[in-house]
Structures are given as structure tokens and as C-alpha cells.
Amino acid sequence: xxxxxxxxxxxDIKDEITEQVKKMKAKGEKVPHLAAIIVGNDGASLTYVxxxxxxxxxxxxxxxMIRMPNTTSEIELLDKIEELNENPDIDGFIIQLPxxxxxxxxxxxxxxxxxxxxxxxxxMNFGRMALDMSTFIPATPFGILELxxxxxxxxxxxxxxxxxxxxxxxxxxxxxxxxxxxxxxSTVTLTHSHTKNITQITSQADIIISALGVPNFLKAEMVxxxxxxxxxxxxxxxxxxxxxxxxxxxxxxxxxxxxxASYITPVPGGVGPMTIAMLLKNTLLARERQMIQ
Amino acid sequence: xxxxxxxxxxxDIKDEITEQVKKMKAKGEKVPHLAAIIVGNDGASLTYVxxxxxxxxxxxxxxxMIRMPNTTSEIELLDKIEELNENPDIDGFIIQLPxxxxxxxxxxxxxxxxxxxxxxxxxMNFGRMALDMSTFIPATPFGILELxxxxxxxxxxxxxxxxxxxxxxxxxxxxxxxxxxxxxxSTVTLTHSHTKNITQITSQADIIISALGVPNFLKAEMVxxxxxxxxxxxxxxxxxxxxxxxxxxxxxxxxxxxxxASYITPVPGGVGPMTIAMLLKNTLLARERQMIQ
Lengths: 293, 293
What we know:
In chain A, strands 1-11-8-7-5-6 form a 6-stranded parallel β-sheet. In chain A, helix 1 (6-26) runs parallel beside helix 10 and helix 2 packs across helix 10. Chain A has 10 helices and 11 strands. Chain A has helices spanning 6-26, 43-59, 74-86, 105-111, 123-130, 139-150, 170-177, 198-202, 254-260, 271-292, and strands at 2-3, 33-39, 62-68, 92-95, 159-163, 187-191, 207-210, 228-231, 235-238, 246-249, 263-264. Chain A folds into 2 domains: 28-113, Leucine Dehydrogenase, chain A, domain 1 (Rossmann fold, 3-Layer(aba) Sandwich), CATH 3.40.50; 139-272, Rossmann fold (3-Layer(aba) Sandwich). The A-B interface holds A 106, 122-133, 156-157, 159, 165, 167, 171, 174-175, 178-179, 185-192, 194-196, 201 and B 106, 122-133, 156-157, 159, 165, 167, 171, 174-175, 178-179, 185-192, 194-196, 201. Strand 6 of chain A pairs antiparallel with strand 6 of chain B, so a sheet runs across the interface.
């Protein structure tokens, strides 16, 4: 069994980006600049955004964190987005979700200039992805592709089963694994809450990508020998014996499934760290695209 | 076995659209107007466009067929598209494919105003579809959904296998069948040229949508009893004994598969006629959206 070490690979990617930023600076070029808008005071959201800002510092990007109050109106947020769309110094920006109830998330995501949409959530970019055109791939799916690529996991002609059809992971992953090229060319089955006989399906899979958010969902008896396991689930489970008061777990019964798997991502330290690395990668791409124009 | 009679259903849809157009006229409103650009003299393309124009006449739409020579440059075509984008009298338009070699098809499709893209080929509309937003669904997939809907074929929790990953049929169909709602909520497997053990996969399917273009590909021993068969294949097979010199056949060995199927589309007369009906439907939607604005 080989551990797909997202922590290590994400650090490699950050090192590579750091090198590229150094070269940009040496040439006197503007470095990539990522902005993040956060509305309200949700603790988890603040933590996520802070770690994104920290990652920018780590690789030498400029970053701007824009905090708006919980009472922000949709118009006020749209105005802020328009400002970032038009600011030539900002190469890419994200809006941390979830948003307060008074704001229509879909309208907000549609307002982002697709050329600065480094989260890849705009339908224009999502459609470009589904039609095999160059685009910003959403960070988590992009990170999974990168992990498979760097470990040379064979995907062509393999049967990939994706569990969960979210817009952020399951749906894009099901599209990407079935595209031409590598990693891709898989036969892909997308399963979800209406799927019957899930065990019958997972037990045929060469590769399983689980993005369900249900701890210990995928058990050893549901998979075949030598399966490749990508565990995207991140659930906080209350644990009073731990210092933080909780621990993080994935969708997979790691202890038992790892004994049958050929490759498997740990949680934490698998897909999670890749997500921020690929957000940085998208921001670098956004900067480079601007330089080509 | 119940025949999914696309000829009948498409005529029903055309009748319904005709009624709506009559009401528009009675209110003194402008009727929907579809334009079609055709570049060059390809016989099949001319036939397709002519049948689209004829369908417009049948339901009372205005239509405009724009013929451009085979030597048309990309710039000339883009200029024509811009003209249609800006012409308030045109509600929707299509560019008949394939285009001559000197023209980049991707650039051309990107130039169409998404609000007039009644073929649903623009990445903006494709992305909206993949993200469960309102959009123009490409006509052939839209037609298949409509057939399943009108015959009340149960799709929820069923295992749908799509054969072929084209941008026009297979890929969008795989996305649509897995979306929330009806027809949808299927567990979907998308297969293609790299798929191994295709028989193992098709023999587990409750619903098979074949868009391969290989006559007699799907045989009785590859499917289970009571399977639902949607045959999107349209291949001309040379036949000197027939008046036309060819006959039209699908991907499915209809004679034998139909004995096991619960529902099946014939070829011709199944999915084919639905495509034009749904193009009309999209044009009507384009007209109505313009009226809302």
C-alpha cells in the first residue's frame, strides 16, 4: 500500500510556485495577487481564509483579505466584486462560502469575472472544463488529479466510482476522470443519495473517490483488492479526550480499507492540503494568462 | 415492450408550440425567430438545415437561413455571428456543423451570445447545465429527457449507462441523468473507447443510452431483461437494393434487443425527430426570456 501523501506533494507544489515567483521578481514582474472576500464571522470560514492568506505569504504572492460584516447586502457584495473585477492588480479572487442568507450565492458567483475565478465555480469555467477546454479547474478536483498524476496512478480504462454529486467535488470529478488524457480516460460511475446497491458498485471499482462527508462510510468489505482510494470527506467528530475537542476523519474506514488498497489518501494530510496548493496554482495561472494578453 | 415513439411525441410538441405561437400572434406579439448559418455545400448539412427551416414554418416561427460560401474566413463568420447577436429580431440561432477547415469551431461557438445559443453548445450554457441552473439544454439530450418524461419512464435510483462521451450527446446526457429531479437521479456510468468489459457494464444497466454510431453494436446478450433502450446512433448503411441507396440504422440490434426491453426507441423515428422539436422549444424559450427582460 502506498500512501498518497498530500501534505508532501502540496509542499512540493508550493516550493515550485515559490521558485516561479522568485523568477518573476528577479525579472521585475508583478507577483500574483490573490484576494479573498469573507462575509460575516463564521469561525471555520475565518480559519480557511486565514490559511489561504498564509499560503500566499509562503510562496511570495501578494494577498488581500476583505472582511465584510454579516449584515452586508447582496448589492454591497456585488459592488465589491465589481471593484475586484476591475482592479488590474488583483489576478484572482475567491468569495468564501457559505454566505449569509440575505445574499443569493448563485448571483454572486455569476458576478465574478471568469478570468479571475480561481475557484473555478463560474458556469463559464465549469462549462469549459466539461467541454475539454482550458479553464480554472476547481481546487479540490484539481488537487486530486495532481495527486494521481504525481504518483503515476494509472486511470486509463479503469473503473472510477465517485461518491457524492456536489458541485465542488463529485460532479466535476466525475467529468474530469472521464475526459480524454491523463489523469482521465476512466469509465466513471457517479453515485449519490438515490443510488441503490452502492456496495455492488464500489466493489467493482478500480478507483474510488469519496466526497460524502459520512465518517467510516466506506468499509473494507465494500472494496476489492488493490483499489485506489481518494478520501475527500472531512468531518469533525467530537472528542473530549483530544485537546481541540474534536478530531478530523474522512469517509473511509482507513484502518481496514488501507490493508486492501494499492494507494490511499490519509485524512488529514491527503486531499485537504492539495486544495490550497491548487488555489495558488490557479492564481499563478491567472497571473500568467494576464501576462499573455 | 413499449416503443418510445419520437415521431409521435415530436409532433405533439410541435402542435403544442403551434398553439403557443397562435396565442402570441393573437396578442400581437412578435413570433419566435430562428436563424441558421450554413457554411459550404455539404449535402447532409443542407438537408439538416432545410428540415429545421421547414419545422419553423410548421409551428409558425419566423426563420432565416444564411448561406455562406465554403471559402468563408473565420473573421467573416464571426462578423455574421456578431450581426445576429445584435439583431433584436433574431431570438436564437445555430451554426450548422461541421465548418470548413480554415475556421476554428471553438472560437465560433464561443462568439455566440449565450442568450441566443439555442443549440446549448456555448460553455456558459453547458456549465449552467452541469451546475443545475436554468439554461438551453442541447437539443438531442433535451429530446431524450422529454421522451423519458412523456412516457413516465422511472429514472430515479436506476443505473443508467451512457455509451460515448461526445460533447453533443454522451457527456451532457451523463450529467443530466445524474442531476436532481426527474428525469434524473440515476446512478450514471459513462463509457467510451477506453472502457474495458463493456458487456459487464451494460448487462447491469436499467437504462442504456447509446450514442456511438456503430451499427448493431448493442446486442441482446449485452442487456438484461426489462432494460430501457435509447438509441441515439444514426448511421447510413449503403444498400443498393433501396431507392435512396442506403438505409438508416442505430447502435442497437433492434430485432433481438427489443424482445428483452421494457421501452426502446426505434431508429429512425425515435430520438432523431425529437432533436428538431427541442430546437424549436429552445427557440421558444429564447423568445420568452427576451420578453421577460
